[in-house]
Amino acid sequence: MLRLVGPWPASTTGRRLAAALRGVPRSLRGSIFGILAASLLLVALVPFLPLTLLTLSAYHRDVEAVESEISASNRQIAVIAGNFLDVLLRQIREEGRVADALATGQLPPPLTGVAWELVAEDGTVLESQLDAARRGRDGGYRAALPPGEGLTIAERWLGGDLPRALYAGPVHGGRRLVAVLDPVELNGQLQAWTREGLDRHLYVVEGSGRPLFYSDLELSRRAGDLAANPPIRRLASGLDGAVRYLSVLSGKQRLGYVHRLAEADWAVVVSADVGASLLGLRGRYALLGWSIAFALAAAIAILLLSSRWLARPLLDIRRALHDPDRSPHEPLDVEEATRRVAEYDELVTAFDELGADFTAVERELVQAEKTSLLGQLASGLAHEMGTPLNVITGNAQYLLRKVPADDPRRPALEQIVSQAQRIAAMIRRLLDVSRPAEARLVPVDVAAVVRQTLEIVPGLSRNVEVRCDLDPDLGPVLADPKLLEHALMNLIVNACQAMPSGGRLAVVTGAETVTDASVAPAAVVIVSDTGCGIPPENLPRIFEPFFTTKPHPEGTGLGLAIVERIVRQHGGQVEVQSAVGRGTAVVLRLRPVPLASAEPRARHQEGR
């Protein structure tokens, strides 16, 4: 059994029809997608790109305006709060230095967020506006008060949970006035200046960064350390003014302002959350951004729908053109949706009409090649066999009429007449092949067709040695006997013409080896010669009609084209392997008869 392992050569039904138009669907595909993409890109860029840029520019301007307003408000609030504390501390100093109040023991009138106490040198409270029960008791001032006049901070003074600022006036007559600042009341007073609806903080810190009055009283109760916060670091570095920073407490972007007091080493810090301030602004621009995104999504949807309505039908037509199972005379097998577009329906109809015209032209080319080939054969046969055949047949028939039935010479004469009639039948078959016919596929014994075709070799060249290796186990194939014989005849004629000085012609049949057990192996016919061979640069064009390297009128360039066309009609494939100076081998792969069709034939052969 012949074994040919490897993929079939690339070939498709209707390849010549598709060859002239092969680039069209692909270029249309790229072109249409490019046009759609470019058009939608322009649709998206022309209106939306300027709109997007204007939106971003307007957003940045609005953000800058809002942040500028926030910074201005922070500065205004910090200055107002600082002035309030400066005035308060100035009043405290002025009241604390009044000598008659120390002499008489009368406390000054209370101020906003401030209570007075008269304290002896040993720390005993003589008079108090905090609590009357504190009179005559130790007020806890020994460790809290500075030795001279000035401000100090008492951490959790007298068991309180908030630090208090104390101002101790000068000592007069063993007494001194002490002003106790209430952090809760002052915090409420300072927070009253902040605008509602914003996450704004206002707090007072010492120069070291320790909080005195913080907007979050719980942080003051925990004695929170604000030294890591950027406004406090700015204050510690000797700077003040506006600052933008990331809060170490909340992790949010904030705008702040640091204002130093004139009456103490204190500072007022006001800060606002940038994100909370821009929440409404971002919401409006986010809505605009979603609108732009929706428009872009609509453009993409239009691209997808356009590709489905415009590009996919073209790809469907391209797929149908390259369908390997389609014969050139068959209409394109396209989807129903492709024909819904009038222009595509007209295009498919034009392809079908072109395929029909091409099939007719091929049929005419086949007929022309048959005529040319039969003309060459008839010329040789008429010269070599015509006259001798007539003489032999006439004389043999005349002798048969004269010889009695029991004459021992009669069988020899009958054999002469029979062989002459066989030669005449061969000539008639050649004439039958010249008539155009559609392929009528029936189960055919390849070996019988090969033997019958090889009978013409002696008439073509007497110097050609014929070797025939036919696989007896090869099953039948689906073929038209006359067309298959015509294809083999063309190959044999080409092989003999390639060996003008003689050579070896080999015809081998067998089954191709396949790895998939579910696939029936193809029947293979190899026609090889030891002739001049085909140059490599001509191999891609050997199946083109009218392409030939033979001088006129020896060749028309239709032989191999007809072979390839006939094999395609049978659903098979053709492969040519050649080497210059060593010869050529043409491989025909034909479809085997399905098992359901082969079994009746096998039973018929067994019955015979």
Describe what you observe in this structure.
The protein has 608 residues and is an alpha+beta fold. It has helices at residues 15-21, 23-96, 99-104, 183-191, 217-221, 230-236, 274-277, 279-321, 342-402, 410-433, 446-454, 457-460, 481-497, 559-569, 595-607; strands spanning 114-120, 125-128, 150-154, 164-168, 175-181, 200-206, 211-213, 241-246, 253-260, 266-273, 442-444, 464-469, 477-479, 503-511, 523-529, 573-579, 583-590. Helix content is 48%, strand content 17%. The strands form four sheets. It has a five-stranded antiparallel beta sheet with strand order 2-1-5-4-3, covered by helices on one side. It has a five-stranded antiparallel beta sheet with strand order 7-6-10-9-8. Among the domains are: 358-436, Helix Hairpins (Orthogonal Bundle), CATH 1.10.287; 437-608, Heat Shock Protein 90.
User: How large, in whole angstroms, is the Cα Rg?
Assistant: 56 Å
State the CATH superfamily name of the domain at 437-608: Histidine kinase-like ATPase, C-terminal domain
Q: What is the CATH architecture annotation of the domain at 437-608?
A: 2-Layer Sandwich
Helicity, as a percent range: 40-55%
Strand order of the largest sheet: 2-1-5-4-3
* Nearest-integer average pLDDT: 76
Number of strands: 17
Largest sheet: 5 strands, antiparallel
Number of helical regions: 15
CATH topology label of the domain at 437-608: Heat Shock Protein 90
Give the overall shape, derived from the CA principal axes. Answer: rod-shaped
Unreliable sequence segments: 1-30, 430-436, 597-608
Q: What separation lies between the terminal Cα atoms?
A: 25 Å
Tell me, what is the CATH class of the domain at 437-608? Alpha Beta
The helix-and-strand class reads alpha+beta
User: Beta fraction of the residues?
Assistant: 15-25%
